[in-house]
Specification:
Number of strands: 0
Largest sheet: none
Helix content: over 70%
Order of helices and strands: HHHHHHHHH
Distance between the termini: 56 Å
Shape: elongated
Number of helices: 9
C-alpha cells in the first residue's frame, strides 16, 4: 500500500496520492460493508438450520438409494453367478459405521475451522479470505485499535464461521462413510472372485 501511494505521488503529485488514498479506503469500506451485509443474511435462524440439516437429509436419502441398489445388485449376481460387480447390501452398514467412527474427527475439524475461519479445501480457503474484510492487517491498523478491529471482525463473521464449521463437520462424516462403503465394495468383489480374506482386505 505504501509503495502504491509513493508511486501515485511520483506520477500524479499530491493530487494523485490523494486519489490513491481515497480509492483505497473506498474499496476497503465497500469490503467491510459487504462482510457485514453477508453475515447479516447468514445470521437468520432458517439459514443456519437449513445449512446444518441439508447434508444429513441428503445422506439419509443416499442411504435409501444404496439399499435399493444393493438389493438390485444382489438379484443380478444371483442370476449371474460369474458376476461380481454392482452394489452390495453390506456397503450400507459399512457407510453407517464410517459415519459413527468419524464423529470425533468431524468435531475436531469443525472446531478448528470455526476457530481459525479457514476451511480445509483450497477453493473454500480462497473464498474465506475474500470475505475476511474486517481485519486489522487488511485495513492497515495496528496496536490496540487493530486488536479491537480483529475482535469486531471475528464477532461479525460468527454466522459465516458457524456455516463453515457445519460444512466441515458433515464433509468429514460424508467422506468417511463413502470411503468405508467403497472399501467394502472392493473387498466383496475380491471375495466373490475367489480371493482370500487377506487378499480381499489388502
Amino acid at each position: 500500500l505504501a509503495k502504491g501511494y509513493r508511486k501515485a505521488v511520483k506520477e500524479g503529485g499530491r493530487a494523485g496520492g490523494n486519489k490513491f488514498a481515497r480509492d483505497g479506503w473506498a474499496a476497503k469500506a465497500e469490503g467491510v460493508f459487504q462482510e457485514v451485509y453477508i453475515n447479516g443474511l447468514l445470521s437468520w435462524t432458517t439459514t443456519q438450520f437449513k445449512n446444518f440439516f441439508a447434508t444429513p437429509i441428503w445422506m439419509t436419502y443416499q442411504l435409501g438409494e444404496e439399499v435399493r441398489a444393493g438389493v438390485g445388485g444382489t438379484a443380478i449376481r444371483g442370476a449371474n453367478p460369474g458376476s461380481a460387480e454392482g452394489v452390495y447390501l453390506g456397503q450400507t452398514l459399512f457407510r453407517m459405521r464410517g459415519w459413527a467412527e468419524s464423529l470425533h474427527d468431524a468435531w475436531v475439524v469443525a472446531g478448528k475451522a470455526f476457530k481459525t475461519e479457514v476451511p480445509s479445501d483450497a477453493l473454500s480457503k480462497l473464498e474465506a479470505m475474500q470475505f475476511k474484510q474486517i481485519d486489522a492487517e487488511r485495513l492497515g491498523v495496528a496496536g490496540w485499535k487493530g486488536q479491537a478491529i480483529d475482535h469486531i471482525g471475528r464477532f461479525t463473521r460468527l454466522p459465516g464461521r458457524f456455516l463453515v464449521g457445519a460444512d466441515e463437520f458433515w464433509k468429514v462424516i460424508s467422506q468417511r462413510g463413502e470411503l468405508y462403503s467403497q472399501a467394502y465394495n472392493k473387498a466383496a468383489v475380491a471375495k466373490r472372485l475367489g480371493k482370500t480374506d487377506v487378499e480381499a482386505t489388502d
